[in-house]
Amino acid sequence: MRVIVIGAGLGGLCLAQGLRRAGIDVAVYERDAGVTARFQGFRIGLAEQGLAALRGCLPEELHPLVEATLGDLTGPARAVDPWLRPLSEHPMAGVIAADRHVLRHILLAGLDDDALRFGKELTTYHVRSDGRVEARFADGTSDTADLLVGADGINSAVRARLAPAVRPHDTGVRFVIGRTPLTDRFAGLVPGFGTRVVAQDVSMLLGLMRFRRSPREAAAELVPGLSLPGTADYLRWAMLLPPGRTPEPAPGRDGAQQTVLARTEGWHPELRAVVEAADPDNSTLLSIRVVRPGPRWPLGPVTLLGDAIHATSPSGGNGANTALRDADLLRTLLLDAHAGRRTLPDAVDAYERRMLRYGAEAVEHSLAALVPFLPPTDRTAAVVAAAGGVRHTSPQSQP
Q1: Distance separating alpha carbons of residues 192 and 227, to the nearest angstrom
Q2: Where are the domains of the chain?
Q3: If you classify domain 2-386 with CATH, what class do you get?
């Protein structure tokens, strides 16, 4: 069996690791020029299901390194006003955090040039008469496999051909996200799980990423020869800008920071200091878009994984976990096909039926979790309409 994965994000790499571990021939094609070619995001929460997927797919020698580079989020989540006066506090169960950039480097471990190819943009694919699928790339090259997996994100080229009716929906909400080196001074702003700053027309979320061990030092001891980024502990912050109120980004390298500073005149000096001290190369303005799985496409040797088919709002804290769940589920079913316990079409069918169901639930949950972060005047049908008519109940939020 040979599998082609389009996209070297967390889900695609996790699947590739799991298949290689089982002896299945797999190649990953990524359109970016390299692993650091663009902004990759910061801290993500890992549920037990996400951690279990990593353990199931990664070689055992990498398990201790994953554990060593996680962070522990403990204590209550609190809400404060822009002058840091307490508004509310509620207990949170212990949550595990990972840095997306560091975790992606771990998932790249052992994938050589034959298995991982950067600078390869998929233009189209073709299902051949023998049932195999041929992927074609912008540089004129092609590759053939028994299964093509589109793990190429919210703007998926695979989805555009496989399920053209399924498109991203823009919620209208924008957010500026940034990273500030963690100091004792700033650590006091997040004494527990996270801090949410509630203002009249915006919300600002603060969270810590404290590694159990320095990623670079942990790799040097646990997996000699593997180089991880020298990422130090940091405070991650994000400001949500409601629909229709997003200013044009300020010009210059620090434009994202200036956009936030312009919205925080009169706020507590410590909050403004966090933004002022941020790394401008890791601060950016982003839109919140989602992809809701639509009607199922005809069964064949092409399928989808992660944000390509069920992109969630970051407010749900479940995007990466759902992509990792996809990878582990598909890995398990493909191993059955590889061993002759089921056919490849049966494996793909079983995967898609389960993935589409829980993927749709993940998107709905993330949209429900977005609503509390909006000002009361914006908690309207705008987000619902942008998301394709999903109705939300029992909103839950994660700072």
Answers
A1: 31
A2: 2-386
A3: alpha beta
